[in-house]
From TrEMBL:
<feature type="binding site">
    <location>
        <position position="56"/>
    </location>
    <ligand>
        <name>substrate</name>
    </ligand>
</feature>
<feature type="binding site">
    <location>
        <position position="152"/>
    </location>
    <ligand>
        <name>substrate</name>
    </ligand>
</feature>
<feature type="binding site">
    <location>
        <position position="182"/>
    </location>
    <ligand>
        <name>substrate</name>
    </ligand>
</feature>
<dbReference type="InterPro" id="IPR015878">
    <property type="entry name" value="Ado_hCys_hydrolase_NAD-bd"/>
</dbReference>
<keyword id="KW-0520">NAD</keyword>
<comment type="pathway">
    <text>Amino-acid biosynthesis; S-adenosyl-L-methionine biosynthesis.</text>
</comment>
<feature type="binding site">
    <location>
        <begin position="216"/>
        <end position="221"/>
    </location>
    <ligand>
        <name>NAD(+)</name>
    </ligand>
</feature>
<feature type="binding site">
    <location>
        <position position="187"/>
    </location>
    <ligand>
        <name>NAD(+)</name>
    </ligand>
</feature>
<feature type="binding site">
    <location>
        <begin position="295"/>
        <end position="297"/>
    </location>
    <ligand>
        <name>NAD(+)</name>
    </ligand>
</feature>
<dbReference type="InterPro" id="IPR020082">
    <property type="entry name" value="S-Ado-L-homoCys_hydrolase_CS"/>
</dbReference>
<feature type="binding site">
    <location>
        <position position="349"/>
    </location>
    <ligand>
        <name>NAD(+)</name>
    </ligand>
</feature>
<feature type="binding site">
    <location>
        <begin position="153"/>
        <end position="155"/>
    </location>
    <ligand>
        <name>NAD(+)</name>
    </ligand>
</feature>
<keyword id="KW-0963">Cytoplasm</keyword>
<comment type="function">
    <text>Catalyzes the hydrolysis of S-inosyl-L-homocysteine (SIH) to L-homocysteine (Hcy) and inosine. Likely functions in a S-adenosyl-L-methionine (SAM) recycling pathway from S-adenosyl-L-homocysteine (SAH) produced from SAM-dependent methylation reactions. Can also catalyze the reverse reaction in vitro, i.e. the synthesis of SIH from Hcy and inosine.</text>
</comment>
<keyword id="KW-0378">Hydrolase</keyword>
<dbReference type="GO" id="GO:0005829">
    <property type="term" value="C:cytosol"/>
</dbReference>
<protein>
    <recommendedName>
        <fullName>S-inosyl-L-homocysteine hydrolase</fullName>
        <ecNumber>3.13.1.9</ecNumber>
    </recommendedName>
</protein>
Amino acid sequence: MKEKDYAVKDIKLAKQGQERIEWARRHMPVLGKIKEEFEKAKPLKGVNVIACLHVTVETANLIEALIAGGANVALTASNPLSTQDDVAAALAKKGVKVYAIRGEDEKQYYENIESALKIKPNITLDDGADVIATVHSKHKEYLKSIYGGCEETTTGVIRLRAMAKDKALKYPVVAVNDAETKMMFDNRYGTGQSTLHGIINATNVLLAGKTVVVVGYGWCGRGCASRAKGMGSNVVVVEINARKALEAAMDGFQVMDMKEAAKVGDIFITVTGDIAVIRGEHFKLMKDQAIVCNSGHFNVELALDELKKMSKSVTTVKADVDEYLLKGGNRIYVLGEGRLVNLACAFGHPPEVMDMSFANQALCVKYIAENHKKLKNDVYKVPEEIDTRVAEMKLESMGIKLEKLTKEQEKYLSSWSMGT
């Protein structure tokens, strides 16, 4: 491979990255089985795929499954701090077009997307909709060759549904994020565990006895709240949705608005997919040495520009921990520059949950390749048969058997005349 065909930090990291990729593979049996099927059937032969995803060991296994299916793949990072440089090197060494370097600035980030787009994609995979946004705003010439795309984040799906509503979406997209075998497990158990891992990894703070404020009670918020509770924290939930707030209260958590929560929290986690949910008015109410982090896709959830204006100084006190010294003397610690704390400060989701998420991705890429002519320019749910198949394959890999209905039970459930 020519050097111009990739942009990674250090190709010499490839051996270390390959070892880690293989370790993750052992914990991703569903994706492994799909890869075997793809190798035999080649359902993606000649299909060009651009993947704008977190460049991790789990993602590497997805990329290898797509290539096994016959796809030509270009990979770029979906977040400047989520790339694992050894993984990028390992994939580049194998001939994959990889454009991802941990810590790249915004200019390099978008240059890497531009480089990956040169593959002239038929299918796009997004983690935050940046490729879709770039194609629609800057490279409409690629639209005629694109069959469709997949989106794997709540944030991205929100953006795409807004585009579809405004008739601005120019090709069909499958909302992989909304598959039950993704959302209920990846978002809840993956984000919950990896977010706390990121906080602990960056700070080594004791969670027991601390008040943890979780802003947003979707599946990611539920996961963060339940994991923090399990570590002995007092958990406060901030919500705008009445039903979710009620659910959080029934789950045993205190529910407050952001101003009240700002006064009592020791650790703050945002998981909303919205902009500026913690603002200057909240930062000024926080305790000295409050820890603030974000586990939503983009760092816009924290109004860091407002925090900076309120501060006398900003100092990096240790890796991934910035101290904002407020003019009143209080200190606020921001983790991972406000970017995804579970990837900026830790390893991201465990492979066991990404196994299901990326199984959905792989099967949805196949679905788009085979069905794109029937699809309109809209956001689609993952077909139920794919979602169900992933669940069944995961259960099988865990050695768990399902109960089956008897004929009498089937008749009872489908009848209105049998009575009680």
